[in-house]
Amino acid sequence: MSTTTPPLPGEAGRAQAVRAMFDRIAPTYDLLNRVMTLRVDVAWRRGLVRGVRLGPGDALLDLCAGTMDVAAEARRQAPGARIYGADFSIPMLSRGARKTGLPAAGADALRLPFRDATFDAVTVAFGVRNLEDLPAGIAEIARVLKPGGRMGVLELFRPQSAGTRLFHNAYNRVALPLLGRAIAKDPGAYRYLVESMERFVPRPEFERLSREAGFAEVRGGGLFPGVCGLVVGVKA
User: Fold this and answer.
1) How many domains does the chain have?
2) Are strands 119-125 and 215-223 parallel, antiparallel or unpaired?
3) Is pLDDT at 64 greater than 60 in this prediction?
4) Burial class of residue 82 (count of CB atoms within 10 Å of its CB; 0-12, 13-18, 19+)
5) C or N: which end of the chain has fewer Cβ atoms within 10 Å?
6) 186 belongs to a structural domain
């Protein structure tokens, strides 16, 4: 049983430790997502894919794809789109590729192995919080998008309102550690989930960084029951 918590947002040397953590929890990741959110995460991903408005023939990069649940949802909503997954955790990505049959590439989100202006849309679900350099990660998403391409980001941003903070604290400090021990048997990983959420930027700050990286029409909102946020933007 691991008790090590990876470095948190804003701390140096995160990439290797975060990758190792996801490698460890890959076998139970899908189950834990469903249990932790009472399957509400399925609706969150559905909204994420709707937000990037895929059309026939569009190329979508599902970045920080994990086990490729977003890629699978994109195929359901837009069967004519060309869908690719990328993640730095090969055990996670291998499970996703087997599950979906979609093409996938091992990749660092800060140094993507794709040419400029390759994709019509990029989605990231619960991945930007794990980047070692958030502005560089947003800039890399912009680089691989075509002009007019859409970015959609689903994330557990740091809550701002008093009511949301209260809900977060109760859930994070009681429910998540219990679930982490019971299902993943990795309390360090789920301490990281809690603490990285509390240390990450709030949604308005992420929206500001997206505009600075060259995205227009940036808009965001909270998703029921208030623990998750969705941000979409268009590359200018």
Assistant:
1) 1
2) unpaired
3) yes
4) middle
5) N
6) no
Over residues 38-48, the pLDDT tens digits come to 778 899 999 99
Report the phi/psi class of residue 68: left, alpha or beta, with left for phi > 0 and alpha for psi in -120 to 50: left
Vertex 53 angle, CA 72 and 120, to 5°: 85
How far apart, in Å, are the Cα atoms of 232 and each of 11, 27, 77, 151? 26, 30, 17, 5
Please answer whether residues 187 and 177 qualify as being in contact, where contact means their C-beta atoms are separated by less than 8 angstroms. yes
Q: Are 144 and 120 in contact (CB under 8 A)?
A: no
CB 151 within 8 A of CB 215: yes
State the residue range of the domain holding 231: 15-30+38-157+201-235
Residue 217's closest CA among 156, 157, 155, 148? Answer: 148
170: burial class by Cβ within 10 Å (0-12, 13-18, 19+)? exposed
CATH number at residue 105: 3.40.50.150
* Global pTM value: 0.90
